[in-house]
Please model this.
Amino acid sequence: MRNFTIFTLLMVFSLGVLADDHRSDHDGKARHHKDMFKQADQDGDGAVSAEEHEQALERMADKRRERFSKMDSDGDGSLTREEARAAKQERREKMKEKHKQQRN
Model:
């Protein structure tokens, strides 16, 4: 009975930790969406109009076109798996360097 009680307590605490971890990921996503909303709300009135929404979509599309162009290393207008992998690896290395600098 004692082992069962200890096991049950451990499970309850473990679930609590997992729930907190999940919540922190959710909060990060919620924060990201809040930031996106602020960026879209160009006039700061607390609402995103259809025009502001379209402008935000266009800015996102521009960023994606720019990213595609950077990944298209040979400039032929299409991406190969190798180009995509190389770009992904480059982003990883940049993020590692950024995290390293933030720690110092």
